[in-house]
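Researcher: Re-running this chain for the archive, since the previous output was lost when a drive failed. Same request as before.
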Amino acid sequence: MNLPNKLTVIRIICAPVFYTLFLICLQLPDTNWQFYIMLGLLAFWLFLEITDVVDGYIARKQGLVSDLGKLMDPFSDVLSRLTFFYCFAMAGIYPFWPLLIIFWRELSITFIRAVLAQTGVTLPAGNSGKFKAVFYFMASMYGMLLCVAISAKIIPQNILSTAVTAGSVLFMLTALVSVLSFVPYFISFIKTDYMQKHIKE
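Model: Regenerated structure tokens:
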């Protein structure tokens, strides 16, 4: 297994660790320990985001792009982001219903990739997927920073309400973009020889 794929595996393993630490933080009494753990989770989040960029850069720069990497990298991205979003929804700063939309979208694209993988066809991220990834990043960054700010108790209550509302709007836009970005993937899936063959049968 090459270095980019190893970094991808590390991100897959780290996602449940992030969730566990976040859950522990929510269960703690209202003390400074929450703030310290949230700072640690912020550093953890940065590590996951940086390795996401680094593994793709190394793969392209050193010619290490592989079919396995094309499958694992999107999966690790989705696993990490869904973990972040679920944590933020548990914390009450994001609504749950956009998360369900995002989950359904990602479950659908995972199914499509799995079907095509059986035929030896991979479905790499297109421009629409990259645009969606930008919104995923912004939503996860906003949620993480807001969690840190809340644990530090530096936001007045009236401003906090506005900040949470703004985050909810961003999250709803993220859900919308995720659905719109799915359309080109679905069209490409329908146009594959595998699907055309089954459609004609």
